[in-house]
Amino acid sequence: MAFKVGLLGLGTVGSGTADILLHPAQRHPLLQEIEIYRVGVRSLDKPRAVNLPPHLLTTDLESIVTDPNIDLVVEVMGGLEPARSLMLKAIAHGKHVVTANKAAIARFGDEIFTAANEAGVYVLLEAAVAGGIPVIEPLKQSLCANRIESVTGIVNGTTNYILSRMQAEGSSFDAVLEDAQALGYAEADPTADVDGLDAADKIAILASLAFGGRIKLAEVHCEGIRQVSATDIAYAEKLGFVIKLLATAKRDMVLGSGNYSQDSAKLAQLQVRVHPTLVPKAHPLANVNGVFNAILIEGDPVGQVMFYGPGAGSGPTASAVVSDILNIAAILKVGRGAVVQDGKPLLDPLLACSHQDYCSIAPISDLVTRFYARVLTHDNPGVIGRLGTCFGNHNVSLESVVQIGLEGDRAEIVVITHHVREGNFREALEEIRSFDSVTVPSVLRVI
Amino acid sequence: MAFKVGLLGLGTVGSGTADILLHPAQRHPLLQEIEIYRVGVRSLDKPRAVNLPPHLLTTDLESIVTDPNIDLVVEVMGGLEPARSLMLKAIAHGKHVVTANKAAIARFGDEIFTAANEAGVYVLLEAAVAGGIPVIEPLKQSLCANRIESVTGIVNGTTNYILSRMQAEGSSFDAVLEDAQALGYAEADPTADVDGLDAADKIAILASLAFGGRIKLAEVHCEGIRQVSATDIAYAEKLGFVIKLLATAKRDMVLGSGNYSQDSAKLAQLQVRVHPTLVPKAHPLANVNGVFNAILIEGDPVGQVMFYGPGAGSGPTASAVVSDILNIAAILKVGRGAVVQDGKPLLDPLLACSHQDYCSIAPISDLVTRFYARVLTHDNPGVIGRLGTCFGNHNVSLESVVQIGLEGDRAEIVVITHHVREGNFREALEEIRSFDSVTVPSVLRVI
């Protein structure tokens, strides 16, 4: 047994991780060289899904991250603290870290990676984004020759499950949420999922990797799916779209140039945002349904590649955690890190996090995108002209204006714009909302 | 300039590779440490898509693979010879190799990897399968904790383009092939693509990686798409399927157990095969159209993950080639390989090819699968009963038998079976083909 692992947490992901490590048959032979040396838990008496010798378990998590025998600490306890402090202490004690903790990495990534570089250790986090789907390592290694242009993902299984069921059944958000909670697909407090916060953590991590700069989480524009109605899903369907909660990070598009900015600045201006989005049915992300996740990466010269699979769950997440453990073991085994510079081992430039500057993130008002808006009015004959004029006055060019149905005695009009600046669109919208007998119950972006 | 690359070939992929190396801006900083040191070409006078200093070009390819200044040889010339000999000579001279050559690797992989292990060098081949889509490295690294159960892919863009157009337009194979040739999507001699040989090379490589054993290419069962008719595509569509050329490698399923064999033998018995297949429309591979490729990997505990993107072309393939170059440069930079064992540098156990045994591949007659068969008959009232009895006598259980149309004065009957042993199905089919007034123009497998 060559490599000793200290496991922090034995919940869903921790049990899945231990289960793989205990059953190496028909897996990579390197697994036989990994030993579970200590497992930190909150309670020693709780019944466990995996069968571990009781002497491995301890409630003293500090003793694990400081144990000189341990090579590698696996943080699968979740939450911000004590996860952050324990990871930092493990790093300070020269241990490599594998974590599934998107919330901690999205918030404290700077601190954690700075400490890791200082100590000459790796912090790997494949499991933090999209569970079992390989995306972090492919971004770092398999796509490293590319200039990444965008990363667009369905990275939250709960909201994708809810939207998929609303689409399939014509049900309301509230009804499906309640059912999803009963079935265990949504938490009792669903805020982090349905308000897009979990997706924001994940796109912040992906953006940082894709664009080689740090991301301030507070600058990620974030809208959830509470306001998505069955009516909008039905209209989107008629127009050839499905509605998905997309997390997007993209080099900023310059309006009118018809092309991406080829800014020579070291760090490009980025858009980083999470919001419900109309996706054309032929788009690769449109067919990603239920709890599945997918991430579409666009790069020069690779074009569009997509990674699809289970975004959560014990087995898939543990697959990513253990693969990270094996990647570190492989590095240690063959002496990478043997080259010492300034007193610390040199880290692999593809696997370590070397960037220190912050990406500049454009305000959402500068976003250039298409919009879908649903307008209700008592005064149909006149209002289409007034809408058109008002949008035109604000430089918002329209692709289509269609009276698509009736709600009670009011006409429903659906407007789809061309690519326009969000700020201009919002100004027009404010004016339209002041019109007599006009309301605008829904506004969504269109990919 | 730290790492010197010798490029063998300056065609489509070679030019794309040089183009990335000459334009490192906004890509990974490690690219700035890669130098194109020599380029081997057939003719010095040919106009080139990239602008390289003429003194780098040579027609003496041997001088590149033996040049002591070169760290890494990139083989993007294609074909079997002299590619094989040059790679072997480069390895013998202690150079790492990056190749896009699926044909050479599928045939001479044994020889090449044995030599590479002997010399302590890496041979990376991300570009050999599915162009720009990361799949080789994810299989080696990101999914390495899994017991792989199956790899199923659309890995040939030409055939997928032809089948997608036949599906969309209702056209015949011959008509679409001719047009694809005119448009440059199919070669003048389309054999390697349409007969499934290119897909067989690729699935042999993927199977070897997924199941940790070598694969004899001659044992890969291979059927192409020439016999797929517009009629079958239309019927499949009515039944909820699309027809795709799938390349599959799978641990053998034991009929009746309802589960995968958990054989404790070191190497599992595998099915490795390429054939047109009916794919349910809701299956992740069903929506992969045109020249796109996708590979679906099923593992324990990850479940199903899919990789999707452009399977060919200069940019996508060069993306994979240059990423492999950078991965080797990263390894060299930080001293991996510094640990020497038996006089040669120890190779990373995840990235190197360590297996030496051959996988046992089951004969196609032992395959357990569902079938689609289209039967033509003059004697409809009697024939359904006779079909059912004959299949039953051979232990072939039927899911549905439907008279679906008329061709001239003959009734067309479409049969879908449950999972049955291929050998039994073929015996039943032989008997049915001997019936008076019955012909069986199409037989396809169903995923």
Largest interface, per-chain counts?
A-B, 70 and 70 residues
Termini of chain A, distance in Å? 51 Å
Computed CA radius of gyration of chain A, to the nearest angstrom? 24 Å
Helix/strand class of chain A: alpha/beta
Strand fraction of chain A equals 25-35%
Biggest sheet statistics of chain A: 12 strands, mixed
Give the number of DSSP strands of chain A.
22
Instruction: Report the CATH topology name of the largest domain in chain A.
Output: Dihydrodipicolinate Reductase, domain 2
Runs of chain A in which pLDDT lies below 50 for 5 or more consecutive residues are: 254-266
Query: From the structure provided, what is the oligomeric state, counting identical versus distinct chains?
Result: homodimer
Tell me, what is the CATH class of the largest domain in chain A?
Alpha Beta
Helix content of chain A: 25-40%
Could you state the CATH homologous superfamily of the largest domain in chain A?
Dihydrodipicolinate Reductase, domain 2
Q: Report the total helices of chain A.
A: 13
Characterization of this structure:
Two copies of one chain form a homodimer. Chain A is α/β, with parallel strands linked by helices and 447 residues long. Chain A has three domains: 3-132 and 314-345, Rossmann fold, CATH 3.40.50.720; 136-310, Dihydrodipicolinate Reductase, domain 2, CATH 3.30.360.10; 365-446, Alpha-Beta Plaits, CATH 3.30.70. Helix content of chain A is 33%, strand content 28%. In chain A, strands 7, 8, 9, 12, 13, 14, 17, 18, 19, 20, 21 and 22 form a twelve-stranded mixed β-sheet that branches. The first copy, chain A, has a six-stranded parallel β-sheet with strand order 3-2-1-4-5-6, sandwiched between helices.
